[in-house]
């Protein structure tokens, strides 16, 4: 089966003071992840307190490269099929995301992917992944 990716409308993200730097960077085509300077661990999703040691966190530039950990093509959730996936970034964190710009049925666990950004309502850009 072949399911070619089609653009679909994306709602605007909910932006607050804790995640505003992430969305500002995404608008510039940059992927940020959370990092804890106290324990040295990266984390996703970014938050003001480290999920491991509860210290303050900072933003760190991610490479934008990763591997598909899990993927499923969703055909019945709306008029356009899409691939929802967990992607393990080179930095060790796993993001829930979409795989785009490819035959969705050809995506496999272990495939190498890279970040790209898709437009959402309000002029925001949402990070998603495409085959590397």
From TrEMBL:
> Which keywords has UniProt assigned to this entry?
DNA-binding
A Pfam match is zf-ChsH2
- Record's superkingdom? Bacteria
Q: Does the keyword section mention DNA-binding?
A: yes
Q: What are the ChsH2 C-terminal OB-fold domain coordinates in residue numbering?
A: 59-118
A GO molecular function annotation here is: DNA binding
Ranges of residues in domain ChsH2 rubredoxin-like zinc ribbon:
23-56
**Record's InterPro entries?**
ChsH2_C, ChsH2_Znr, NA-bd_OB-fold, Thioester_dehydratase-like
What is this protein called in UniProt?
DNA-binding protein
């Amino acid at each position: 089966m072949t399911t070619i990716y089609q653009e679909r409308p994306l709602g605007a993200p909910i932006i607050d003071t804790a995640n505003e730097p992430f969305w500002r960077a995404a608008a510039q085509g940059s992927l940020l992840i959370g990092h804890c300077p106290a324990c040295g661990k990266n984390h996703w999703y970014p938050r003001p307190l480290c999920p491991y040691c509860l210290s303050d966190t900072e933003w760190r530039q991610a490479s934008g490269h990763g591997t598909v950990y899990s993927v499923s093509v969703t055909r019945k959730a709306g008029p356009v099929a899409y691939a929802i996936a967990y992607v393990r970034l080179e930095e060790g964190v796993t993001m829930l995301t979409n795989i785009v710009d490819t035959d969705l049925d050809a995506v496999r666990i272990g495939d190498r992917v890279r970040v790209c950004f898709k437009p959402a309502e309000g002029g925001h850009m949402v990070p998603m992944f495409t085959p590397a």
